[in-house]
Amino acid sequence: MQQEELEKDTLNEEVEVDTQEETTEDNVSDINSKLEENKLKEEIKSINDQYMRLQADYSNYRRRTQQEKETIGLFANEKILNDLIPVIDNMERALEACDDKESTMYKGIDLVYKQLQDTLKKFGVEEIEALEKDFDPNVHLAVMQESVEGVEANKVVMVLQKGYKLGTKVLRASMVKVSC
Fold this sequence. Notes:
By secondary structure, this protein is of the alpha+beta class. The protein has helices spanning about 1-75, 80-95, 105-120; strands at about 125-130, 140-145, 155-160, 165, 170, 175-180.
C-alpha cells in the first residue's frame, strides 16, 4: 500500500511538474508574442513617421517650386522693363519741355506716357517714393547733400531722377539730394 501511495504521489508530482512546465511555456510564448507585437508597433510607428516626413518634404517642395515659378515669372521681364525706364524719363522731359499744355503735341505725348506707365504698373513696376522721406540707401542714391533750414537731417529734399522697383527688387535707385 505504501508503494501504491508512493506511486500516486510520484504521478501527482509529475503532473504538477508538467502543468508548471506548460504554464511556463505559455508565459514564455505570451511574452514572445507581446515582444513581437511591440516590435511591430514600433516598426509601424517608424514607417508612419517616415511617411509623414515624406509628405511634409513633398509639400515644402511644391511650395518652393511654386514660389520659384512666380519669381521667375515676375523677374523674367526685368531686362525689358529696365530698358523702358529711360523711355519714361524722356517722355517726362518732353512733357516738361512743352510750353503749351493745351497743344495736341502735349496731349499726344501725355497719352503715350500714361499708357506706358499703366503697362509698367500691370507688370508690377512701381515708382519709389522719395521726396520728403527718410533717406534709405537700399532704394536711394544720394548724389548731393545740402543743409536745409527747417528740414531734419537725413531727409530727401530733391529727387533728381526717379527710381523704380519690381516687387521688392530695385530696378533703379532714386537719385536724390539729402539734407544734412
